[in-house]
Amino acid sequence: MLNRLIALGLVLGLLTGLLAAATGSTVLLRIAELSAPFGQLFINAVRMVVIPLVVTVVFASVAGLGDMAKLGGVGGRTAVVYALTLIPAVAIGMGVTALGLQFAPSIDAPTLDAPTVPELRGLTDFLVSLVPSNPIGAAASGQLLPLIVFTLLLAAATGTLEPERRARMVQGAQDLSAALIKLVWWVLWLAPIGVFGLIAPATARLGWGLVQSLGLFIACVFVGLLLLMVLVYLPLLVWRGMRAGRFLRGTAGALGIAVSTTSTATAIPVSLENARELGVSASTRDLLIPLGASLYRPGSALFQGAAVVFLAHLYGVPLGLGAVIAVLFATVLVSLTVAPVPSSGVITLAPALVAVGVPVAGLALLLGIDRIPDMARSGVNVLGQIASAVLVDGDSSESD
Known about the structure:
By secondary structure, this protein is an all-alpha fold. It has helices at residues 2-23, 26-63, 72-100, 123-129, 135-140, 144-158, 163-188, 191-206, 208-239, 244-250, 252-261, 268-277, 282-295, 298-315, 321-334, 344-347, 350-356, 363-367, 371-393. It has one domain (2-393): Proton glutamate symport protein (Orthogonal Bundle), CATH 1.10.3860.
């Protein structure tokens, strides 16, 4: 229902803007102009909830793992697999989109009222900025990336506490994140009006070129997801002794559920069964499938990398070497914070945008078209989660 309403807001906004641009109708132009404050209201609501949601989800997920050293070899192999796949996922998304945008029509940046952050001056400045001198100040000023680094460190320290203290802190974070997820749902019910209020004025100004650019972005995401599977996951699986055909046939059940529901959490029971059928040991699959559904979303990471490049192009924000590294780092981190709500992969993109100075208001341009990319990236997410379990388990001889 909500996805349909958001799509309706997008379609009505596009039609209103396109007709206003084509006919010059003062009535339609006035409607587009008057709707703009609703778009800004929606963006303000999104920005309001992003910081606490990201912090609580990251903290609860990492602290809940306990002492990292206790995970032993499985934890180390999992971290390696996640790093070896998430970084290429973001790079592929950015690269394919940068290449595809060579064929995009030339349009002026949309006039959307949202604050920007000065472009990073270089790699050294970026690395220094990752450690906040004042985490509260970083949160107040919207510096999400250093705040995430602080949260990761605090969560890792919490994981080393005695079980009673750690459990209380994790439970508190989980309760708060549950309340924030409910708040996100409320905010998303504003999305149909908000998307209209951002799309209609932008389309009235930019016309058909914006529609073409959005279609090109979707195509780039699909191509990138396909390349991620073909160039990264399938070769790694073959290297580990798993035939590509067997893996794809064995994951069809989980893939179907993830695509249809856009939720890898919903697919956990089937993912566990598919992993068992693929020969993954009970101890590995019972740990990594739920963990992957909570943290590991390579398809979302690719989408977010592609989205940053697309919005930077749309707003004319240059991406130098320091900015590219900032996007890689930020996107890998924020891909771990995607909450189980529709289009949260778009909402949690804010830290990566802020890191390179792209207006957060650009997120509304993606929300209305997100249903189709969300289905595709959810499918790749669940395939990546099962593949990571296969890769980590390797030649385990544990029987069930």
